[in-house]
């Protein structure tokens, strides 16, 4: 019954925010496919034009060979090396299976003209709300998994095959001839320049309040480029540099950033059921690109890059967890919602709330799809116009996810249930400390407020202690730190057995002695007192803190109100 209540309360939130995001996406206006800069880039739905002749089809490559070497038989040299295909996954497991085979997946066909560029596409012939077709290129002897797929075309792509071993045959020249014969000669580069380009470059993102505003590398994201069915990929390093794994004869290629990070987390959503959001960068030089994203030139990609970097740094700080603070669980999924201003770490993707629910029991297939694509963290970015805002919020939610990695679903369900009951009964999501179930809230929020602010202070040097007005008093953990405990030692207090403020006090004394217990007693002399102080009833949605200046302006950090940041994380 408890799980059913949590589910019923959580579903309207997910559905409502998803609907609002859809309306916002429908209103987007942007530039065409050949946009050369990020500012005009569209983040809505891709609009396709006519189908183009694919120069890399085996048939067209054979025709190109015959055109160049009329006295030879093309079939003796040019043969199928790859297959251009599309898959129809049913759930995330199908996506992961395809990705585990090394495939790069596109949600739009690769051999069509793009009239209006964007971040996503849905096949109009599929039912609304379905997972859309995923297009890819596989080797000719690919072992197809047990899912629906269609082979669109046989292709010749492999430069290392028999073609390059044949006397006097230049694969780059063969490519160019195939482009010419198929009516795509306008896409080729200047013949006087190098015939082949390997895309490389650097992606950076600005933070006006850090490192004198100099752009930081967008770390660990996948960069994909393609010209028709020839696809190259690579990841940015910690400084944002990348070099893709294939070369191109065409002068321009279509670039995309896929926010599925090397560190094991993904940013969604794209308004459709896909494992990670994608930012299209349009057609750019095949030699490479250097791009710096700011709030002013592309708010959507800028926010994605900042949040990506916060999580990348957080995972790196945690390492494998042997240093004392566990990283969030692998496969962490975070949704960014510009129609919201609040944040939630419900860990739905990892099974909290959903597992053992009535939907899981009655509709297991539906449950599998929903659970696969719903988020662990829901981040409201509607009022985030500086990296300052995003860092403080993501640090808080990441701290929650580390706590979850220790305590698991049973504990987290109690936390979610308690916040849901408080919200319904008008106590505010955090409650007052008067209910026994409030202990789960107090402990989870105490840790997240403390560690989120600890990391925020390390970056911005502002000396804030957020959340101190709440009944669970996260400043107590700061006092423990001042008394000599490290954040790692403090984290060790929050295991699955610590379910109340009283238990926390006992745990402090058990692990670190009576001296540290005295720090606890100064704040919680009587942890079982059922009469909350007035501050315990604070509205969690209070709007008494400025969101900081836009990314192009520095936040001075001197406003007294910053002692109580608005939303370090609602739950």
From TrEMBL:
Region annotation (Disordered) ranges: 525-571
Highest taxon, organism lineage: Bacteria
Residues annotated as signal peptide = 1-24
Bias kind Acidic residues: ranges: 530-543
The UniProt regions of compositional bias labelled Basic and acidic residues, in chain numbering, are 549-571
Keyword annotations for this protein?
A: Signal
List, alphabetically, the PROSITE patterns matched. Answer: PROKAR_LIPOPROTEIN (PS51257)
List the protein's name: Uncharacterized protein
Source species: Candidatus Merdivivens pullistercoris
């Amino acid at each position: 019954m408890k799980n059913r209540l949590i589910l019923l309360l959580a579903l309207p939130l997910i559905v409502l925010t998803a609907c609002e995001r859809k309306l916002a996406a429908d209103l987007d206006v942007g530039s065409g496919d050949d946009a050369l800069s990020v500012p005009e880039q569209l983040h809505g739905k891709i609009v396709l034009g006519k189908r183009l002749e694919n120069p890399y089809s085996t048939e067209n490559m054979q025709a190109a060979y015959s055109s160049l070497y009329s006295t030879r038989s093309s079939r003796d040299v040019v043969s199928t090396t790859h297959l251009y295909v599309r898959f129809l996954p049913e759930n995330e497991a199908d996506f992961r299976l395809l990705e585990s085979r090394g495939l790069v997946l596109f949600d739009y066909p690769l051999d069509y003209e793009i009239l209006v560029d964007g971040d996503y596409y849905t096949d109009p012939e599929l039912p609304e709300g379905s997972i859309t077709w995923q297009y890819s290129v596989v080797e000719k002897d690919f072992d197809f998994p047990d899912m629906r797929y269609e082979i669109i075309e046989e292709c010749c792509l492999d430069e290392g095959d028999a073609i390059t071993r044949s006397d006097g045959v230049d694969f780059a020249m063969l490519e160019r001839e195939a482009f010419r014969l198929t009516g795509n000669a306008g896409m080729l580069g200047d013949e006087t320049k190098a015939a082949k380009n390997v895309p490389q470059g650097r992606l950076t993102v600005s933070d006006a309040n850090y490192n004198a505003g100099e752009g930081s590398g967008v770390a660990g994201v996948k960069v994909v480029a393609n010209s028709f069915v020839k696809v190259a990929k690579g990841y940015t390093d910690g400084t944002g540099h990348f070099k893709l794994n294939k070369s191109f004869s065409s002068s321009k290629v279509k670039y995309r950033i896929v926010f599925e990070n090397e560190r094991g987390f993904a940013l969604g959503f794209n308004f459709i059921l896909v494992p990670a959001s994608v930012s299209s960068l349009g057609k750019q030089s095949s030699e490479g690109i250097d791009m710096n994203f700011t709030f002013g030139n592309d708010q959507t990609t800028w926010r994605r890059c900042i949040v990506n970097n916060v999580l990348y740094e957080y995972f790196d700080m945690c390492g494998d967890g042997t240093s004392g603070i566990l990283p969030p669980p692998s496969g962490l999924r975070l949704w960014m919602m510009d129609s919201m201003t609040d944040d939630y770490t419900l860990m739905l993707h990892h099974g909290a709330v959903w597992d053992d629910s009535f939907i899981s029991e009655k509709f297991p297939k539906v449950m599998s799809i929903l659970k696969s694509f719903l988020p662990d963290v829901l981040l409201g970015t509607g009022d985030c116009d500086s990296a300052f805002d995003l860092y403080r919020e993501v640090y808080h939610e990441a701290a929650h996810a580390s706590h979850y990695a220790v305590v698991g679903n049973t504990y987290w369900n109690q936390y979610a249930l308690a916040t849901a009951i408080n919200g319904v009964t008008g106590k505010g999501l955090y409650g007052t400390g008067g209910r026994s179930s409030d202990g789960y809230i107090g402990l989870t929020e105490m840790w997240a407020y403390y560690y989120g602010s600890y990391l925020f202070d390390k970056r911005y040097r502002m000396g804030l202690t957020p959340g101190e007005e709440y009944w669970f008093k996260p400043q107590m953990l700061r006092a423990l730190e001042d008394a000599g405990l490290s954040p790692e030692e403090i984290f060790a207090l929050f295991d699955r057995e610590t379910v109340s403020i009283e238990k926390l006090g006992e745990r402090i004394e058990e692990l670190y002695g009576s001296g540290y217990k005295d720090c606890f007693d100064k704040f919680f002399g009587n942890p079982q007192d059922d009469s909350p102080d007035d501050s315990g009833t604070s509205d969690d949605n209070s709007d008494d803190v400025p969101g900081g200046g836009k990314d192009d302006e520095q936040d001075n950090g001197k406003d007294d109100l910053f002692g109580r940041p608005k939303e370090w994380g609602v739950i």
